[in-house]
Amino acid sequence: MFVGLLLSRYLNMSVEGQEAVTTVTPGQYILIEGNDDEYPFVAKLLKFFGDESHKQKKALVQWFLRLSEVPQNKKLLLGRSPHPQEIFYYLGRACDNEINAESILGTVDVRQDNSPDTLYVKLSWDTKAFNVLDPVLMQDTPASTPPKPALPLFPPCASPTATPVSRGPVRRALPTPDPTVMRRAGSVSDTRATMSAGKRSTLEISANDLLLCLSQGWATLMGVGATKKSELIMMDCSCLFPVGSRSYFIYLDVIFVVLLTCVPVLRLHVSSVPESLPCREQEFQDIYNFVESKVMDGTGGCMYISGVPGTGKTATIHEVIRCLQHASDMDEIPTFRFIEINGMKMTDPHQAYVQILQKLTDQKVTADHAAALLEKRFSNPAPKKETTVLLVDELDLLWTRKQNVMYNLFDWPTRRHARLVVLTIANTMDLPERIMINRVASRLGLTRMSFQPYSFKQLQQIITSRLNKVKAFEEDALQLVSRKVAALSGDARRCLDICRRATEICEHSTSHPSSAGLVRMNHVMEALDEMFSSSYITAIRCASLQEQLFLRAVIAEFRRLGLEEATFQQVFVQHRALSRVEGLQPISVSEGLAVCQRLGACRLLLLEASRLDMLQRVRLNVSQDDVLYALKAVRD
Where's the BAH domain (predicted)? Predict the structure, then answer.
């Protein structure tokens, strides 16, 4: 857009364009080169100065934001649709207010009144809320001093004469891994609940919340542990019935029954957010330290997290992000953006580019175009860039033959100006060595973490913490569930599902809900029979010997590859090897294809419909735990 720069001391500069030369002086509003050529950055020029070597000219600016630059989850705070020409005065600390003078594209007119032809500003944005703009902030100030309410040039701990200037807040001491760390996570949800519902204790629940629980069965009652009617009188239900009336006490009786019978079931649901994450304190602390250090330093990095399903990988990362966002809201660390993609939710691995770009910029383009835009975004320096934390779940499903998707995801954080932190999750610990070529594995780095399966004592602790001092299970019944699941897979989600179902069975086994007692051994056994006696498990138990052997071959190949998908040829090699181990005559290829087709007809396997040859792709339609449980019962 411009051919050259004619520098004239440090008072002004001229931008030479295609048709005219524009002189830029402090106090003017300017356009600055950014990631999007159609929408460059907008700022107010405060002054020019030279760098330490006096070879490069720099500028001090006050930033303005377009709505597209505000994080997606905070745009609704505006409460209305913005005008295309509307910008916002930026009062945050995440952006560097020093830029290279060469990045200035030209001047622009910015006003405070609503003008359809020029940019205008009426509100300010401080990374937390939109506020009415103070007119004092828009007044012209001397070129030698920045506006007083604008971004501080020096952090609170530094003197104005100290050089070099520190760009971030002061590093604070990190806590050691102990229960206090997890209570910090719980305090975040408590704070949010207080902000949204007003100042009230966990037992002070509004009538609207109680009606919502009665009508939908869910609730804000997830954190309530009251089992005494005297504690429920604190609830604000006087707006519905006169205090002391017959309807008032009937209302309390109904709510008491709801709390007594529904709260254990709700808390044991896998989708409920626990108050803490027991048995994962060390993993929580390690991930927290890694991400926080990258956000504080403004650098990038990768971490590979592995573990069998149900060991708390995704939940721990979400808890870490929740704590970091709370720390950012309290101005303890710089602001950052968190986005998440899941390989299971994509039809093609290259859709990862589309989803990442859409969550960053709200643009929806083709995969190739998205990859090019992301390459430009993470490669080029940009003054208004905050750290992005990207969570990639089910990483193994992003595998392609050329592995270009994985390579880019691991390579972008190594770029100097990327400020990208990538957290990847997969089920296989040695996935990089198994399927990644050397150039991809080298970009991943050596920062890895493995989540071990839960032991039966840890599963007991998880269930007890979910119930939060509500006595709902007999000790023997709780131990039976924990030992049964720990011996099979150590999957906490499976354990919670069994306990929830046992609670429902106990509730419906009595004539009146208020007389429901503790969950006993017989309730747990009935729940176990239901969970492990589905139609799929019955079909596996009734399958022929070769079909059961083929399912074992599928699981063996999945574990060898570290993926959840394989070709028929790969599975057939495993099937022949297992046949020799079992002392059986290996079957032919045509017989193997017939076995595979029968399992696909029963929907135990998902087969690629477009081809019926050796390269046909095969996936399981049931969990590996269910297959192993059914095959174990058959062999026993």
Answer: 22-148
